[in-house]
Design brief:
The chain has helices at residues 15-24, 28-35, 57-65, 70-73, 81-87, 124-140, 168-171, 186-201, 204-211, 231-236, 262-268, 281-286, 289-312; strands at 3-8, 38-39, 96-103, 105-107, 112-114, 145-149, 152-156, 219-227, 243-245, 272-276, 318-325, 328-335. It is of the alpha/beta class. It folds into 2 domains: 3-61 and 240-351, no CATH class; 67-231, no CATH class. It has a 6-stranded mixed β-sheet, with no helix packed on it. Strands 6-7-3-8 form a 4-stranded antiparallel β-sheet, with helices on both faces. The longest helix is centred in the C-terminal third of the chain and has 24 residues, at 289-312. It is globular, with a radius of gyration of 21 Å.
Length: 352
């Protein structure tokens, strides 16, 4: 029989808003699944989250299931850069590679805030132009760059193997000082980052973006450092899943991933499937809870309702729901047998 785990980043609303948001939700299928689900035991890593970790709870959860947890224990981000390079057809030379992403950092009165890269709409032409400006600066200090796509570049820095970095989503919307790289190489990185920022500051490309009402691309975010010696181990590691759907792009090389509808997933009937539904992520990071509600309604229509029907019909034996906000992750499991607990009313209270 088929079991499907659904990972729902920011499926838990922030505690201070949860009651109000839940009252506005019209998600009867999700209410049935949660109301009749049992709780799974939580691993120790979820017991002491304070919202200042270098990776969000769902990113940490994924890292633990795909042999990427080594850096997390040392206070870093998942070591995904070398594997991500293979997604773009790039063969990493031996050494330590990092993900490097062009971003906008907003200057407030007394601190700097990282903007969600998803909102920047960087074109290939813009990214290539900025890459060409930055590349000589990195080459000069012996840190070669490689281009992946408009949102994703790569940098080799062998001496920075122990540098602790943070995922951009963990840092997004916050004072970046807490999430900036820490450890051996941090001063060198800040110096290099500042040089790039000066070269980009008044570039015609950014002036044109501002004329169109877009934010300028004014900095780079460094994370995901990986020694290439880890690559073979990562790509050969097998999670417990027989199918993975909609993994984050940076994990694509570590698991089979493809787009599917709920109907296609039900028909495929994987023995143990993992479905990542990240439609809430952008709204949550922006604090746009009206949009969060809209996206939750879409998930109800296109995913929760069809999967609940399949569970009732016996086409799926059980469904796991893994939900989080930035300080907590919860894991629930609903089986076909659990749906018979008629005395348990449909409820969204497990989101509180």
């Amino acid at each position: 029989m088929s079991h499907i785990d659904i990972l729902l980043p920011f499926g838990l609303p922030p505690p201070e808003l949860a009651s109000d948001l839940i009252r506005q939700l019209k998600t009867p299928a999700l209410a049935v699944l949660l109301g009749r689900a049992g709780s799974e035991r939580q691993a120790p890593e979820w017991q002491s989250l304070d919202g200042f970790e270098n990776a969000l709870p769902h990113e940490t959860w994924l890292a633990h299931r795909f042999a990427l947890a080594e850096n997390l224990a040392q206070g870093g981000s998942p070591p995904v850069a070398a594997a991500a390079m293979t997604m773009f057809g790039l063969k990493p030379d031996d050494g330590v590679w990092f993900l490097l992403q062009p971003v906008h950092i907003h200057v407030t009165r007394d601190h700097l805030v990282l903007m969600d890269q998803r909102q920047l709409a960087i074109s290939e032409q813009e990214s290539r132009a900025l890459f060409d400006l930055a590349e000589p600066l990195f080459t000069e200090v012996g840190m070669p760059l490689r281009y992946g796509d408009a949102h994703t570049w790569f940098m080799r820095a062998d001496a920075w193997n122990a540098l602790r970095t943070s995922t951009p989503d963990a840092a997004c919307g916050h004072n970046i000082d807490i999430w900036m790289p820490k450890g051996n190489g941090e001063r060198d990185w800040r110096k290099l980052q500042n040089e790039v920022q000066m070269h980009w500051h008044d570039h015609a490309l950014n002036q044109a973006r501002e004329m169109r009402g877009q934010k300028p691309i004014n900095s780079l975010w460094l994370w995901g450092g990986t020694p290439t010696t880890m690559l073979a181990e990562q790509t050969s590691a097998h999670s417990s899943y027989t199918a993975t759907i909609n993994l984050p792009e940076w994990m694509g090389a570590l698991g089979q991933t493809r787009g599917m509808t709920a109907g296609q997933l039900i028909s495929a009937a994987p023995q143990r499937g993992l479905l990542v539904l990240d439609a809430l992520l952008e709204a949550a990071l922006a604090g746009d809870w009206g949009r969060w509600l809209e996206q939750m309604q879409e998930l109800e229509l296109h995913w929760f309702a069809p999967l609940l029907s399949a569970l009732k019909a016996g086409k799926i034996s059980s469904i796991g729901l893994i939900l989080n906000h930035n300080k907590e992750l919860r894991d629930y499991r609903a089986s076909r047998m659990a749906l018979r607990r008629f005395w348990l009313q449909p409820s969204l209270n497990k989101l509180l």
